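Researcher: Let's do a round of design. I'm pasting the structure tokens now; please hold your answer until I've finished.
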């Protein structure tokens, strides 16, 4: 009886391991396309053109539309999948080292992709199209404000990965998502009501 139970446990463990590999592969694919999702978040925010030709022009972002919602959904599922699968009961069990490794690397990817997208500038059409101000205001400031949700979420993912043996899987999987969505919403609220008027004015 004990031998039979042991064999059943082995079968369940192997099936879980295979399922986790599939989940982690899905997470890896999601992390690869996270740059495209970041472009969606980038286009949702209004931006001020810092170039001489476009000085004073504010590109209206798409806002919190269906594209933004889909980007949030896909990125959130990717973050949860990057944590792997729980080893036993969903809410109380720990995760695997495999999942922790992917989650930690995923944190670097999320922060990295957000930083890369923030550096993409679509304002300059040629060598003669220079910045309006010597500091190219507000190019760097807009980029810095854009990366906040991605960088914070990436740091949280890395911290959660390091705590794989201390925190339940559910906490490790859901905390980055909560931070991600909350910071995106705060970013939109602060951007339109406070940051955009500053970016539209002269450098301080």
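Researcher: That's everything. Go ahead.
Model: Designed sequence:
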């Amino acid at each position: 009886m004990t031998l039979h139970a042991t064999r059943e446990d082995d079968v369940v463990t192997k099936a879980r391991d295979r399922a986790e590999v599939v989940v982690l592969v899905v997470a890896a694919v999601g992390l690869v396309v996270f740059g495209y999702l970041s472009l969606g978040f980038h286009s949702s925010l209004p931006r001020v053109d810092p170039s001489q030709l476009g000085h004073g022009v504010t590109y209206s972002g798409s806002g919190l539309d269906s594209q933004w919602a889909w980007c949030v959904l896909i990125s959130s599922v990717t973050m949860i999948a990057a944590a792997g699968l729980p080893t036993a009961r969903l809410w109380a069990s720990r995760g695997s080292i495999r999942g922790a490794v992917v989650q930690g690397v995923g944190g670097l990817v999320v922060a990295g992709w957000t930083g890369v997208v923030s550096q993409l500038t679509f304002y300059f059409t040629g060598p003669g199209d220079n910045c309006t101000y010597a500091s190219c205001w507000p190019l760097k400031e807009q980029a810095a404000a854009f990366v906040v949700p991605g960088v914070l979420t990436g740091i949280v993912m890395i911290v959660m990965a390091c705590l794989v043996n201390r925190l339940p899987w559910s906490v490790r999987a859901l905390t980055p998502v909560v931070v991600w969505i909350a910071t995106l919403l705060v970013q939109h609220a602060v951007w339109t009501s406070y940051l955009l008027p500053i970016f539209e004015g002269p450098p301080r």
